[in-house]
Amino acid sequence: MEIERVSYPRPWSENVFRAEIDRVTTHADRYYVAATLGRRLVGYAGLLLAVDDAHVTNIAVSPAYRHHGVGARLLADLGAQARRRGMASMTLEVRVSNVGAQRLYESFGFETAGIRQKYYENVDDALVMWRYGIAEADFAAVLARHGVEVDR
Ligand SMILES: CC(C)(COP(=O)(O)OP(=O)(O)OC[C@H]1O[C@@H](n2cnc3c(N)ncnc32)[C@H](O)[C@@H]1OP(=O)(O)O)[C@@H](O)C(=O)NCCC(=O)NCCS
């Protein structure tokens, strides 16, 4: 919750986290992963698994640990999970002003497909980004660059 609160203008509540994590077992349509350093939680990320598409629900890294590859490693782990679950694509929304996160997604081959106007707090626009072809070898190579090995 500490990381969440400093990461977003409208952080998820503890209840949202609990409901999301519950669905991992009750509906098997969510996946969550935590990044730890020793016993310290430094980041986390999650997926909503739809029919063919894996939707990134959240990805955040503790400010003190940013820019060390944790976010990329988390995204690579999500990518590997999405492949394992037979998904064809990944998608997400990102605030237009969040250029840092957009660079991260672009480095995984995400492309902007459109804009959702006033998506955040009924004020800020969101870019809708997609990464198609995640079952292909080129995506496996991106994951491997971040230390996540998958079958090609
Ligand atoms: C987005 C976020 C998860 C990135 O985590 P991170 O651990 O800092 O990311 P990484 O160190 O793995 O960065 C990987 C690459 O992404 C890009 N990137 C990440 N943050 C960036 C920034 N602020 N500015 C420019 N590029 C950035 C860079 O290309 C970077 O590679 P480099 O370090 O070799 O230059 C983190 O900034 C965060 O928690 N932000 C707040 C929550 C948020 O906005 N989440 C995304 C919601 S859509």
Question: N- to C-terminal separation?
Answer: 36 Å
Shape: globular
* Sequence of strands across the biggest β-sheet: 1-2-3-4-6-5
Bound molecules: coenzyme A
Strand content: 25-35%
Explain the overall architecture.
This protein is of the alpha+beta class and 152 residues long. The protein has one domain (2-145): 3-Layer(aba) Sandwich (Aminopeptidase). 34% of the residues lie in helices and 34% in strands. A hairpin with a 3-residue loop joins strand 5 (111-120) and strand 6 (124-131). The N and C termini lie far apart (36 Å). The mean pLDDT is 96.
Please give a handful of descriptors for the protein shown:
Aminopeptidase, binds coenzyme A, single chain, alpha+beta
Quick synopsis:
The protein is an alpha+beta fold. It has five helices and six strands.
Break the fold down into its secondary structure elements and pairings.
Layout: H1 2-7, H2 14-26, E1 30-37, E2 40-49, E3 53-61, H3 70-84, E4 89-95, H4 99-107, E5 111-120, E6 124-131, H5 137-145
Parallel strand pairs: 3-4
Antiparallel strand pairs: 1-2, 2-3, 4-6, 5-6
Helix pairs in contact: 3-5
The structure holds coenzyme A.
